[in-house]
UniProtKB/TrEMBL annotation:
PROSITE patterns per UniProt: SHSP, TONB_DEPENDENT_REC_1
InterPro entries in the record: A-crystallin/Hsp20_dom, HSP20-like_chaperone, Small_HSP, TonB_box_CS
Similarity comment: Belongs to the small heat shock protein (HSP20) family.
Pfam families, per the entry: HSP20
Name used for this protein in its record: SHSP domain-containing protein
Keyword Protein biosynthesis found: no
Taxonomy, superkingdom: Eukaryota
Organism for this UniProt entry: Spizellomyces punctatus (strain DAOM BR117)
Key words, A-Z: Stress response
Region (Disordered): 90-118
Domain spans labelled SHSP: 38-181
Length: 181
């Protein structure tokens, strides 16, 4: 067979091979949430890890997270774990509380210019038509090539991004004195 005749067959075989890798690659490269049985409230946030001469920097996108729901811990001298939970903005209890607190004014009407019909914002528990925000527990572990200075780690959570500055240990020069015999 000649190459032009083999080309469609090769392309079809490549397409089949790569389509089976699409989901795992999507999860690894784009930090998509897990699907199916693994998706039981498990979330894998997008994380960047970079290195400078003196430190490592971990930046994790955690939209919707609260600072008090995020934990950082070292499991050994060179491994840090970032874990937490991103819950819904409002729970059924907060809808119930809002409903009882505003019994007289239980709905607010606004103008929806696109549909030319009013939109009612209610204190009732909503029925979702679509829910695209990612919610759930997460746990990410990062192992550095050498031990790090865990006593000087700094973490800042701002605008849904957790930034963790992990200093490398200071290089101490251990001067050895030489004695004459």
């Amino acid at each position: 067979m000649t190459i032009p005749r083999l080309l469609p067959t090769l392309l079809r075989d490549f397409d089949r091979a790569f389509s089976s890798l699409e989901e795992p690659l999507s999860q690894a490269l784009f930090a998509r949430p897990l699907r199916g049985a693994q998706a039981a409230n498990v979330y894998r946030p997008a994380v960047d890890v970079s290195e400078t001469k003196n430190a490592y920097l971990i930046e994790a996108e955690l939209p919707g997270a609260r600072r008090e729901d995020i934990d950082l811990e070292f499991t050994d001298s060179n491994t840090i774990v970032v874990k937490g939970n991103i819950g819904p903005k409002e729970t059924a209890q907060s809808y119930t509380d809002a409903s009882s607190a505003t019994s007289e004014a239980s709905a607010v009407t606004t103008s929806n210019t696109d549909a030319h019909t009013p939109t009612t914002i209610s204190a009732e528990i909503p029925t979702y038509w679509t829910q695209e925000r990612t919610l759930g527990s997460f746990r990410r572990s990062f192992t550095f090539p050498t031990a790090v200075d865990s006593e000087r780690v700094r973490a800042v959570f701002r605008d849904g991004v957790l930034s963790v500055h992990v200093p490398k240990p200071e290089q101490k020069v251990n001067k050895i004195s030489i004695t004459a015999e």
